[in-house]
Amino acid sequence: MISQPSRHCTVELQALPSRIGQVRRIISAQLRYWHLDPLIDQAALGVTELLTNVHRHAQPDKTCTVNVELLLDRLTVSVHDHDPRLPTVHDADSSETHGRGLALVAAFSESWGVRPRGDAGKVVWFTLPAKFPALALPDYPAVYGATTTGPFTEVPEAAAEAATATVRSAVTD
User: Fold this and answer.
1) Is the pLDDT of residue 1 over 50?
2) Cβ-count burial of 112 within 10 angstroms (0-12 exposed, 13-18 middle, 19+ buried)?
3) With a threshold of 0.85, does the pTM exceed it?
4) Residue-wise pLDDT tens digits, 119-142
């Protein structure tokens, strides 16, 4: 198994409308750098919804931290603010112009949630699957040990033929 190190990006900001657009651009650039272009639209939409909630509802201030973390095959985007009140999914009717943010995040994300942090506020997060193409490993010839019993005692036909084939060199004298 090939392990992939965690990749992390953190942005601290005041959740003001002008800053939300900047954070979208930062996250988009970071995902391009990580070669996760297919996730840009969903991640940018999700962080916009979460930051808009901070802008509209968070008290006593609009200070927050956005974290984007890629760990194995999962991208997690989270927003930490200082308001301890937990958000709820609102059942907005079709005539309302706002109130659908968390429902939208729930619809497009693989998972989402809220972690209370006591007097330090809360963290609202969502995850997206980040599938990586399989790494192409070079073909190596089969290697067999000296054991005479066990799962490797039978030599596949192709390996047996290769072992008995005449070795030829492209180098001439």
Assistant:
1) no
2) buried
3) no
4) 899 999 999 999 765 444 455 455
- Burial status of residue 19 (CB atoms within 10 A of its CB: 0-12, 13-18, 19 or more): middle
At 147, list the tokens: 């054991």
Give me the residue label for tokens 């301890």.
84
DSSP letter string, 65-77: EEEEEEETTEEEE
Residue at token pair 């060199």? 169
Q: Would you state the pLDDT for residue 48? A: 95
Give exposure, 56-73, as e/b (b: 16+ Cβ within 10 Å).
Answer: eebeeebebebbbbbeee
Give Cα separations from 83 to 17, 60, 89 (angstroms).
18, 7, 17
Q: Which amino acid would we find at residue 25?
A: R
Retrieve residue 116's tokens. Answer: 């209370």
